[in-house]
Write a structure and sequence with these properties.
heterodimer, A: mainly alpha, 11 helices, B: Four Helix Bundle (Hemerythrin (Met), subunit A)
Chain lengths: ~325, ~200
């Protein structure tokens, strides 16, 4: 019995506690990203934005959550109910489980696996299922069109994301996220890989269905795309999943290119690592919101052209250049 | 170790159940979703074996790419479910034959692994120390040295298949207007705009 408690129960409780320590702040962060988005875009468009609920409108996300919770969940006729309700859950949980491997500071993680970056790539490539299932199960033309667009879009941009990840891996010499960050001591990878940093960021926008690539839910042509038939809590889960995905992909950008928890200069290392990590993620999120306020939506054929005919060849060439440079100068990390 | 074996039975059980569901579901889209669950549990079994690289590749390649295309195609097919049921007995012999062939092949592979002297040598070959080298690196070392030609040949086969399918589906349709970026960029003002001083009352012919 004592062995059971010390061998299984305590580690289990410890892991559970760590997961809660990650997920609860993450959910609060998701709520405030939605608030920040409305306020920032409001400021950029010379509006006020939500400012009534609570001081500075700070309680607005919770008011929205309560509103969505108390609404009725509508199941469309002819839909496939299990798949219909499974889809938002899939989207939401995928956005959460990615955090299992993300190190937010030196030595602060839930799990430190050898193939961390592959895990992240796998989780982000699964994101398409939630959308495709939603589109199919809704039994609606708009939802289905949105799902088809999204499937093609996400599969296309994953290819260039994969190649760019390989460029970073070659430079860092490891698939482990902690080691990738540690390899950036001295120089963050966004400097030597600057073109890839830009392409990666744009691909992240496409992967998370953000503006200017939000074709799956283009409201001017598809009502709300794959979310058309969703209401109440199911809609809230999709919404939360989308914003959690934004934070997750910003975290990936931070780890791969912006030096993770590392401070920009050594003198600032008295500030704890997770503060730097959060600051860098906020920077990426701000860029995403800024882009939303600035750019018009892409046309679908232009989006596909950009992914397959511009980003894919560019990232492939950069991969060959990186490998060639590393071998020629003898800098291949072992 | 109890947890590890419990996890094994959990993954194995779900894998078998979902594999059966792939066959027995009436709706083809549900079948594909069960297939995805099967892939996941296979990946879980790989993790339990300590082959985390293979597990992640299974998820990335099969679940993240291949199954998406499956789902894509199956969703767009307009399948009449009762008609599929009618053909069940007709295709049963062919399906059973393929199943038996696969079973015999699996038995041969396993038998070869147990009985063949070459396999004996392979099994006795020293495996790299797991504390020194992780299995991603071990895989890379063997794939890019000993089996590099086979590996490249596999890549070439895939490339040829890809080009083949592109050629098969490529067709030039008349009357479709496409955006040509280079002509748009190369357009000059002189080619398109002409400033004309129109005489009053006459216009331009």
């Amino acid at each position: 019995m004592a062995e059971f408690v010390s061998g299984y129960l305590i580690p289990f409780a410890w892991i559970l506690g760590k997961i809660l320590l990650f997920v609860v702040p993450l959910l609060v962060a998701v709520a405030y990203v939605t608030y920040a988005e409305r306020r920032i875009i409001g400021a950029m468009q010379m509006r006020i934005g939500p400012n009534v609920v609570g001081p500075f409108g700070l309680l607005q996300p919770f008011a929205d959550a309560v509103k969505l919770l108390t609404k009725e969940t509508v199941l469309p006729t002819g839909s496939s109910p299990v798949v219909f309700l499974l889809a938002p859950m899939v989207t939401f949980s995928l956005a959460m489980i990615a955090w299992a491997v993300i190190p937010i500071s030196d030595g602060v993680w839930i799990s430190n696996i050898n193939v961390g970056i592959l895990y992240l790539f796998a989780v982000s490539s699964l994101g398409v299922y939630g959308i495709v299932m939603a589109g199919w199960a809704s039994n609606s033309r708009y939802a289905f069109l949105g799902a088809m667009r999204s499937a093609a879009q996400m599969v296309s941009y994953e290819v260039s994301i994969g190649f760019i990840m390989i460029c970073v891996l070659l430079t860092a010499g490891s698939l482990n996220l902690t080691e990738i960050v540690n390899a950036q001591k001295g120089m963050w990878f966004f400097l030597p890989h600057l073109p890839m940093f830009i392409i990666f960021f744009i691909s992240v926008l496409a992967e998370t269905n953000r503006h200017p690539f939000d074709l799956p839910e283009a409201e001017s042509e598809l009502v709300a795309g794959f979310m058309t038939e969703y209401s109440s809590m199911a809609f809230a889960l999709f919404f939360l999943g989308e914003y959690a995905n934004m934070i997750m992909m910003s975290g990936v950008v931070t780890i791969l290119f912006l030096g993770g928890w590392l401070p920009p200069v050594e003198a600032l290392s008295f500030i704890p690592g997770f503060v730097w990590f959060a600051l860098k993620i906020s920077f990426c999120l701000f860029l995403m919101i800024w882009i939303r306020a600035t750019f018009p939506r892409y046309r679908y054929d232009q989006l596909m052209r950009l992914g397959w005919k511009v980003f894919l060849p560019l990232s492939l060439v950069w991969l060959i250049l990186t490998a060639g440079f590393l071998i020629y100068t003898g800098r291949v990390p072992v | 170790m109890i947890v590890a074996s419990l996890a094994f039975y959990l993954f194995a059980f779900i894998a078998v159940v979902s594999a059966l569901n792939v066959i027995f579901q009436r709706n083809p889209v549900h079948s594909v979703l069960w297939l995805i669950l099967t892939f996941f549990n296979a990946a879980g079994l790989f993790v339990l074996l300590g082959a985390e690289f293979l597990a992640m590749l299974l998820v990335v390649v099969y679940v993240g790419a291949v199954a998406v295309l499956f789902l894509f195609v199956v969703m767009m097919l307009d399948i009449n479910i009762t008609m599929i049921r009618e053909g069940f007995m007709k295709y049963l012999p062919v399906g059973a034959f393929i199943g038996i062939v696969l079973l015999v092949e699996l038995a041969l592979v396993y038998g070869g692994w147990v009985m063949s002297p070459q396999a004996e040598a392979l099994r006795l070959a020293p495996t790299p120390d797991i504390t020194q080298i992780d299995n991603t690196e071990a895989l890379g070392r063997i794939m890019y040295t000993q089996y590099v030609y086979v590996f490249q040949a596999a890549g070439l086969v895939l490339l040829v298949a890809m080009i083949g399918s592109i050629v098969l589906t490529l067709r030039r349709r008349p009357g479709v207007r496409k955006q040509n970026i280079s002509t748009q960029v190369n357009r000059r003002k002189e080619d398109t705009v002409e400033v004309v001083k129109a005489p009053v009352g006459k216009g331009i012919a």
